[in-house]
Write a structure and sequence with these properties.
Largest sheet: 3 strands, antiparallel
Distance between the termini: 30 Å
CATH architecture: 2-Layer Sandwich
CATH class: Alpha Beta
CATH topology: NE0471 N-terminal domain-like
Radius of gyration: 12 Å
Number of domains: 1
CATH superfamily: NE0471-like N-terminal domain
Order of helices and strands: EEEHEEEH
Strand order of the largest sheet: 1-2-3
Shape: globular
Number of strands: 6
Number of helices: 2
Helix content: 10-25%
Length: 85
């Protein structure tokens, strides 16, 4: 498993309104609002509530399942998205 930037996730918790709570191994948390991003080509696959609810943490990524197809996003990209709001 490749880990970038030393960011390790303990868990990823989907929340209402296309928000996701990231819980890091060090105990820190971040809540990221993905609502505006699901309309973009990059994140369109997680627009469906059932797909969004499938989020889980895997090392330094959040992975969603679109059917049997995984869709992974590095934590650093999600944190960058949070900073753009």
């Amino acid at each position: 498993m490749e880990v970038r930037y030393g960011i390790f996730l303990r868990s990823a918790k989907p929340l209402p309104g296309h928000r996701i709570e990231l819980i890091f191994k060090n105990g820190s948390t971040a809540v990221i609002n993905m609502e505006r991003r699901i309309g973009t080509l990059r994140f369109a696959r997680i627009a469906d509530e059932a797909v969004f609810a499938s989020a889980k943490a895997e090392g330094d990524k959040v992975v969603w399942l679109d059917g049997n197809t995984p869709f992974a996003v590095y934590c650093s990209e999600l944190l960058d998205a949070m900073m753009m709001d």
